[in-house]
């Protein structure tokens, strides 16, 4: 594992959510693994969308639906072409 960081909520409605993002390297692949707990249940057709943000420009990095206990996870293989300068990971509905 290269790096592991806790994600902080920016919305009061998400204060109870616990989320962790890990950056892993496997052979020549770089992976981001995001795990979250205490997520609210979604309406039909909704998903949690993960974003990597560089200079306020979001890039979609996967989506997931939490289980009935509010746990969810997604693994995303990063595109290694060009520089990787994102400094923020965000979750939206």
Can you characterise this structure?
The protein is mostly beta strands. 0% of the residues lie in helices and 53% in strands. The model has no long low-confidence stretch (mean pLDDT 79).
Radius of gyration computed on alpha carbons = 13 Å
**Average residue-wise pLDDT:** 79
Binned strand content:
over 45%
Termini distance? 28 Å
Strand order of the largest sheet: 1-2-3-6
Characteristics:
93 residues; 4-stranded antiparallel β-sheet; 7 strands; 0% helix; globular
Topology:
Elements: E1 3-7, E2 18-26, E3 29-37, E4 48-54, E5 57-64, E6 72-77, E7 88-92
Antiparallel strand pairs: 1-2, 2-3, 3-6, 4-5, 4-7
Short description:
About 0% of the residues lie in helices and about 55% in strands.
């Amino acid at each position: 594992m290269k790096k592991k960081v806790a994600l902080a909520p920016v919305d009061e409605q998400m204060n109870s959510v616990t989320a962790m993002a890990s950056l892993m390297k496997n052979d020549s692949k770089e992976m981001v693994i995001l795990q979250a707990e205490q997520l609210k249940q979604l309406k039909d057709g909704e998903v949690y969308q993960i974003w990597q943000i560089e200079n306020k420009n979001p890039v979609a990095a996967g989506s997931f639906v939490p289980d009935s206990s509010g746990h969810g996870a997604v693994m995303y293989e990063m595109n290694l072409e060009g520089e990787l300068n994102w400094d923020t990971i965000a979750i939206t509905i």
